[in-house]
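Sample 1 of the test manifest.
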Amino acid sequence: MPETIGFLKPRQAVLDRRREIVADLGDLLPEGCLISDERGLKPFETDAFIAYRRMPLAVVLPETTEQVATVLKYCSRYGIPIVPRGAGTSLSGGAIPQEDAIVVGLSKMARILDIDLFNRTATVQAGVTNLNISDAVSADGFFYAPDPSSQLACTIGGNIGMNSGGAHCLKYGVTTNNLLGVKMVLFDGTVIELGGKALDASGYDLLGLICGSEGQLGIVTEATVRLIAKAEGARPVLFGFATSESAGSCVADIIGSGIIPVAIEFMDKPAIEICEAFAHAGYPLDVEALLIVEVEGSEAEMDSMLAGIIGIARRHGVMTIKESQSALEAALIWKGRKSAFGATGRIADYICMDGTVPLSQLSHVLRRTGEIVAGYGLRVANVFHAGDGNMHPLILYNINDPDEAARAEEAGNDILKLCVEAGGCLTGEHGVGIEKRDLMLFQYSKADLDQQMGARAAFDPQWLLNPSKVFPLEGRPAA
Amino acid sequence: MQTNFSPEQLADPHVAESETILRKCVHCGFCTATCPTYVVLGDELDSPRGRIYLIKDMLENGRAADTETVTHIDRCLSCLSCMTTCPSGVDYMHLVDHARVHIEKTYKRPFKDRLARSVIAATLPYPSRFRLALGAAGLARPLAGLLKRVPFLRTFGIMLDLAPAALPVSRAARPAVYAAKGTPRARVALLTGCAQPVLRPEINDATIRLLTGQGVEVVVSAGEGCCGALVHHMGREEQALQAARHNVDVWLKVAEEDGLDAIIVTASGCGTTIKDYGHMLRLDPTYAEKAARVSALAKDVTEYLATLDLPEREPRGLTVAYHSACSMQHGQRIAAAPKQLLKRAGFSVREPAEGHLCCGSAGTYNILQPEISAKLKARKVRNIEATRADVIATGNIGCITQIASGTEIPILHTVELLDWAYGGSKPVGL
């Protein structure tokens, strides 16, 4: 595929010292923590944004914060770029390396360090998966709320980097609303701690700055997160509609009426068919659009909230309403939804968009998205967090066909511009990464970006951490 | 995922199949989370996604296998947990099968590894040789520690460690037709297996007693051999295909004589392979159709028993930790049936945490990858013991020997407990 997004030109001085760097890293780390063989490096050349690939110079898999610090200190001394990697599930290319970079993978740092049910917090190493946290406290009636669809595999470190969201964030907020503290390593190897077990820390709210900084301000090695008590009961309900527009306006009216369910998820017909084939969740196949609305609380609370939602849905001509009857059925409904992207792989390659729009614009943006993609001669499947307007059009294409791949990328750019024009933004939860970097100027003024880059420079004056991402290559300060 | 094969490469049906499999992978990374070796080692190269990438690179470049690639493919347990997890439906099983054959053809292992693998391939699949070897192992056991200190002989030391201290007195089910009690309702063939009748002959006895008691005629066919799984997973394609053809002939002969409703398999590892005969022999014009017939007939014993509608039994006050073998839950996707049968038979069933993770047995894995295998065993035993069950039930002989070596809780084949509940004698060891 002809690449339209550029990476920074590799630093020749670093490439020239490759052999020496690898030998030094081998000395600094225990056995089994360094990958430098060309064959072994290949699988690290991309993440879940597979249209772009770059081989790293080496991959290190440290086992402790001290080892991360040692590596970063070494890299800053010799001006070697660093690309942090959690589980490599980024849909925006946040973990794609570059030829002169050392990938610092946190996959060996996957221990849960402390569970404090009294204070409702968990402290974990950055490589712990999102779901592992909830699994560890589930028997005690707690969970960690932000639930990206990749929660089975994605790590808490990656979630912090991208300020990840998820279906249940409508009620509980995204990562930044559930993060209490971090231990992180700065570019020069300094280890700092931010926040703690309390809800607010004195001084600047640097934690808010770190969350969503895409691995450019440091490498988080430990995180303390908030645990939430599970509700008495939870019930996902399926609402089928004859058109995407009516489903979209129904969502706007539910939220507009002041009702906040735990989740409102949207799927259009192609997405319903894809997910049903994988999960056999019992999604209605005779509708054009489906909303999964989950309510929680006591039976009476759920009934009362549902009655309100059903009333609104009827006004929008809902065709079918189906409540899940068992925990198993509820689990299948969510399994299908959360596997949507991967399951799309059964029928085509895809690029997943992440624009967010005001709910009043949802129907309009959905319709325009369909027109844009059709205009490029491609198909689209929509499956997204409707309740907070976070859209995920999946543009279906054949990655082995360079022309289709180029059209898919152009269609994606047009859709993201549409989201911004509609008063929304480029990314709801997947991060800017490499994918949306060059569109940042469409969203922000130069002054906006300069201020962000200034904050970045305060943490990483040499621009060594994940340097090809987030900010357009032109207009950066001279390093 | 993007692939890059030339039309000439794709003319090879094996490469063409692998290309189709690779095209389905979207590199989402879900598989890493449920892969036992990734969970234990924390290196993406030891995860399905990493291995898929290594295999893709090797095949695309038409390259001989190299040490790095072989190391990580060898560490794959073939537990197929990734296939249960994969939302895109990537057929990892057949991709890694192809990679193993490619490795076997293009890579020369160090002499000690070749020796160990040859010994395994020439012993385990043959009950008489296996019994003889275990007898000898009993005598040589004091040497295990010494052997393990010599790098060259290490694998043999490990094998001695794994050999049971005492063998059951041989009373393996003989080839015969075991008549159904009462009105016959079906006729099935029973694969008696190779390692299982040597280590636990009680399993086949219990199966025959239980099935005949339910009105099913059971045929143990003369001449059936190893299913081929052990050598298949070592990439010894021809030896595996020969085993498959041989068994296809044996069973279809039984079917032609007097009809056959099912081929019952009591080791889920074998079941996974027999159910794959149709695929393994798809390119063999003489056998393709016959093998597909055999695969369609193959049923795990619990899968078959679930169709018989066994009567409900009073609670026995015995708690059973059910360990689902990987070949059962991931290979054959049989998850609920064994637990339902046990509950119906009056047992209280508990499910250990991390039930999707392998116990580390995985065919010859505990011999060839002892360190990873030991870590997985310890983790599995910890999770099972946390259930505080009275007994462990599972459906695969490999898991039985592996888990038994790590815990004091008795472990039985599911069918032994069912046989007991439906009139058989109390299982040995309970």
